[in-house]
Amino acid sequence: MNNLKTALSFLLPVLLSGCSFYSASAPAVEYYYLNPDKDFSTIGRVAIVELDNDSSYPQIAADVTEVLFQALQKKQIFGLTIVRQNAPAWRSLQLDLNSTYTLAELFAIRKTLKCDAVLIGTVTGYRPYPHMAIGLRLKLVDLADGQLLWALEEIWDTADKTTQRRIKNYFRREMRAGFAPLSEQLTVVSSLSFIKFVVYEVAETLQPRR
Length: 210
Hints:
Blueprint: H1 12-16, E1 32-34, E2 45-49, E3 52-53, H2 60-75, E4 79-83, H3 88-91, H4 103-113, E5 117-127, E6 133-142, E7 148-157, H5 161-174, H6 180-187, H7 191-205
Parallel strand pairs: 2-4, 2-5, 3-5
Antiparallel strand pairs: 1-7, 5-6, 6-7
């Protein structure tokens, strides 16, 4: 879980560049950025690249990627495609996810993956039951000009009282009241249920400002 201590390091360059954070639409997640100068309606298709994994649990990145794909599909903001890390098309690009892309690289990604933007990121840490926690670092890049459309860095820890409250509120909204207490308990036991809660909060930040 040491990598979970690196929160904000990814978003620091955004702060230094003079960009702003917006949290009015989803106050549960504290550290995310939504580009106020970008029109999401111009983004027809986004490729979600299977997340990198800095945790010691090999399957967690693939699981989070799949649930994130499903959650964003429900939002219907843009078309989506999952690109696995071992896909020949992605491997042929030989790109460093942590680098800034050149115009030539942006064009190559757009042509190879047939998309307008790419969502990339890392599972920065993961801890299973009984004290589940996960850290994510994500960013959405416009392939037309390389600008950041959206970025997020957050840690969810079920030992934290605030996270516990957010889980309770999540199931009050999403489930029938009679099943909410059982579902809350399941979230802190089941890794998949916990991931669904986390990704729900992630997806809530990806709502374009109106």
